[in-house]
Amino acid sequence: MLPRVTAAVSNPYYGKLFPRRDEAHLRTVEALCFAWLVAIGALTWHGTIRLRQLFLAYLLLTWPSTGSATSPPIAMATPARR
């Protein structure tokens, strides 16, 4: 799965080949990621985690922080008025 996913954005017909020594590690990472998604899905389905909480977590993870290179510092974002 991982060789196809890594190249899906640029060229879906190209499959990246990983060294054999990394296969066990990559399969473990894939299994743990899948287990994480299943756990989040089950907790959401059960009602322990609400969709609003998932949305807010998504915003926190994707929204640029005030210290990032793409957004100016807070002091520069709002000019002082006299």
Helix percentage = 55-70%
Give the overall average pLDDT: 76
**With helices defined by DSSP (H or I, 4 residues minimum), what is the helix count?**
4
Largest sheet: none
Secondary-structure-based class equals mainly alpha
Distance between the termini: 59 Å
Radius of gyration: 20 Å
Tell me the number of strands: 0
Low-confidence stretches: none
Give helix and strand order, one letter per element, not per position: HHHH
Brief account:
This protein is mainly alpha-helical. The chain has helices at residues 2-7, 23-46, 51-62, 74-77.
Characterization of the model:
It is a single chain. The chain is mostly helical. Helix content is 56%, strand content 0%. The chain has four helices and no strands. The protein has helices at 2-7, 23-46, 51-62, 74-77. The protein is extended. The mean pLDDT is 76.
State the main characteristics.
82 residues; mainly alpha; 4 helices; extended
Q: Which helices and strands occur, and which strands form pairs?
A:
Blueprint lengths: L1 H6 L15 H24 L4 H12 L11 H4 L5
